[in-house]
Amino acid sequence: MGLRRGSTAAAAGLRRRRKKNGAGATGGAGNSISPNIILVMSIGFIAFVVVLHVVGKLYLVPREAGRS
């Protein structure tokens, strides 16, 4: 029974702390972005870098370098 009371008190303390902060540990109001958006933006950035790498390899290599 003592464990139950302690965990309830700890949970209540966490709730109070969250309410004081307002937006939680992530930042101020209006700065929340969903994890799905972060994932899509990250994958898009990686794809963009890969495309730039391929374009650079195909079009920016001197023409005479590959011929003998």
Structure keywords:
single chain, mainly alpha, 2 helices, 66% helix
Please sum up the structure shown:
The protein has 68 residues and is mainly alpha-helical.
Tell me about this structure.
This protein is mainly α. The protein is 66% helix and 0% strand. It is rod-shaped and about 75 Å long. The N and C termini lie far apart (84 Å). The mean pLDDT is 75.
Provide the fold topology.
Elements: H1 2-21, H2 35-59
Biased composition (Low complexity): 1-13
Pfam families: Sec61_beta (PF03911)
Region (Disordered): 1-33
Strand content: under 5%
Instruction: List SSEs in N-to-C order.
Output: HH
Secondary structure tally: strands? 0
Backbone shape: rod-shaped
- Rg, alpha carbons: 26 Å
| Structural class determined from secondary elements | mainly alpha
| Distance separating the two termini | 84 Å
**How many DSSP helices?**
2
How helix-rich are the residues, as a percent range? 55-70%
Largest sheet: none
Poorly predicted runs of 5 or more residues? none
Question: For the residues shown, what is the average pLDDT?
Answer: 75
